[in-house]
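fold-stage: in
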Amino acid sequence: MNQTTATPTCPVAGRDDRKSAELAREHVSTFEGAKIVPGFAGAREVLRSTNVRQAGSNSSEITFDNPAHISFFFLDGDAHRKRRASVAAYFTPKAIVTRYHPIIDRTMAKLTAEFQATGSGVLDEMALELASNVTVEILGIDDRGNPLALAKLFHAIRRSSPRPNRSAFQRFFQDRLFGWHFHAPKIRLTAQLYDNHIAPAIVVRRSAPKDDVVSYMIKEGYSKAAMIMECMTYGSAGVSTTREFIGMAAWHMLDRPELKQRFLDADEEGQFAILQEILRLEPVSGMLYRRAQTDMPDAKGGPIKAGDLMAIDLRSANIDPETVGECPFALDPERSARMKIVGNYMTFGDGPHRCPGSQVALHEGRMFLDSLMRVPGIRLAKQPQMLWNRNTQGYEIREMVIECDKIS
C-alpha cells in the first residue's frame, strides 16, 4: 500500500526521515471491500470529483432525515456547500489573526512561564491545552476553566466510539446483543459533554449570541443530538489532530537541532514551509473514503464502477515521486516551492471536503513551536510514546516530556 523505496535519482537513497512510517506499516488497514486509489493524481481526482460521496468515519450509520442538523462533514453536494459557507467566517485570515492569535499568544505566555518555572513539562499536553483554547473560541462552549480536561473529554469520547469499519456481524453483536453495555461508556461521556459544556453555553448564547458555532446552532434550531454531533466533529478535528501535528513537528525539531534552528531563523512563510513538509511526511489522519455514484471508466487510478468504495491512502499519495519529486522520504522544506504545489500535499485532504480549519491548525503549530523552541535549554527528557489510532488510521504522540533551563 505504501511506497517503501526511494527513487533512483535520489542523492541520499535509503534516507527516510519519517517517524511514523513503521507504525503505519504495522497497523494501517482499510474498510472491507475498499479499493485503494493509487498515486497522488488519482487520489486528487477522486476527492475533487462530483461523482463521489463521503464514505468515511461512521457515515454509513448516519440518518439523513434532516440534513440541516447533520454535521457538514457528512454532507455532499449543495447541502454541503451551503453549510460549509455558513462556517467559513470562522476560518478566514482575518478571524485567525484577530480572534485566534491573541488566544494563542496568551496561552503560550502561560505555558512557557510554567515550563520555565518548573524546568519540565509534557509537550503533548501543552499542545492539547492550546488546541482546546482555540477550539472553545470557535465553538463557543464552556470549558469550565479547565481546557485540558475538556480536550481530554473530547478524546475519550472519540476513543469510546465504535470502529468506523465494523462488519455487519460486529454491528449486530455490539449494537443488538450488547447494545447498552457496549455503548454505555460513550453515552456517559457524551452526557457529560452536553451537561457540563454545551448546555451552559446555550443558556448564555440565547441572551448574548456571538459569532460562534453554538450561536449558529441555536439560531438554526438544532436538536440536542445535532449539537453534540457538531461539537464532537469540531472537537475531534480542532483538538485531537492539532495536538498530534504539533507533537510530531516538535519531535522532529528536538531530534534535529539544525532543523529547529532553521525554523527559528525563518520568517513566517519559511516556518510554514517546514511545518507543511513535516505534515507531508507525517499526516495525522491516514485514510479517506469515497463511494462512487456513477461509473468513472477513465479515472487516473483505473476504472471505477458505480457503488465502488474507494480508499485514499494519504501517506502513499504524499510520497508519490511523480508529484513530490526525488527523495520522497526526506524532509525537504524547499520541496513545495521547487515542485510548485501546496506544501502539505494531501495531508488536509482535497476537493470540497478539504479540512476547513487547516490554516488555523498551521497558525497554532507555528506560534506554539516558535514560542516553545526559543526557551533556553529546551530538550527531550526521553523519547515519547507513539500510539496508533484505528479510527483516524494515524499516530498519537504521548508522554513527550521536555526539560529546559529552570528559572530560579
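fold-stage: in (second)
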Amino acid sequence: MNKEVSLQQIVSDIIMFIERNKKIIISFTLTGMIILVLFQKLKPAYYKTSAIVTSGISAYERIPEDEDILNQRTAINLINNLQLDVEKEDYLSLANKLNFSDNLKDARFLAKQIKSIEAEPLLRQDKDEKFHNTPKFQINLLVRDANIIKNIQDGLLYYFNSNPYIIKFKDQYSASNAEVIQFIDDEIRLLRELRVDNKSNINMNTFSILSDKENMEIQNPIIDLVHKKQEVKTQDLFEPLDFVKDFTTTKVAEREVLVWGTTIGILSFFLSIIIAVFREVKQKSLKKQNK
C-alpha cells in the first residue's frame, strides 16, 4: 500500500513539476527546434548523388592470381585517393587531376565545391549468404553546387584515361587482343580451306580433323573460333572507367531537418527540465532563508 502511495505521489509530483514549469519547458524546446530549422535553412546546402561504374583495369593487368572477374580494387582506390585531396583541402591538386579548367582560380573554385567523393564495391550475395565481388562499383558524391556534377563525371573519365599506368597496360592489352584476333582469323581461314579440301588426315594441337568424317568436324572448330573472337572483341570494349549509370544532377538539397530537429528538440526538452529543477531548488532555498 505504501509503495502504491509513494508511486502515485511521484507521478503526481512530476505532473505538478511540469505544470509549474511548463512555460520554461515549452519555450526552451521550441526555441531549440526553431533555431535548428533556421540554421538548416540558412546554412549552405549540399547535394548527394551516386553513379554505378565499371573499369577494365584488372583485365589490362591480367593478374593470374586474381580469381575475381574484373576486380575493381585498383579503380576504387584511385577514386578514394581523390578524397584525400578533399580532406586536405588541396583543391588545386584535385582540380588538376579532374582537368576542371585552364584558369587556376576557376578550377580551384570548382574543386572546392566537392564535399566528398568515395567509391565502394557492389557485392552480390549467394544462397549461402556469402558476399562476392561484382565487376561494378558505386561512386558516392556530395557537392555544394549541383551544377558541377557533370564536370566531375567528365573529370573522372579524364582522370582514368590520362593515367600513365593505365595507358601503358591498356595499350599492351589492346595490342595483345589484336594479335589474338589476327591469329584466330588465320586459323579460321586455314580450317575453311581444309573443309574444301579434306582429303588427308590432319592432327592439330587444338583440333583433330579427320578426312573420313563429315565436314561438321571442321565446322565445329570454326564456330568455336568465331565465338572466341567475339569474346576477345567484347573484352576490347573495356574502358579504364565506364559509367553504367551516370550521376543524377539532383536539385534536392540534403538538409536533414527532420532528424536533427527531433534530436535537438529532445535535448532542448531535457535541458529545460534541468533548468527548471535548478530554478525550483533555488526558489525553495530563498524561501527557507526568508523564514
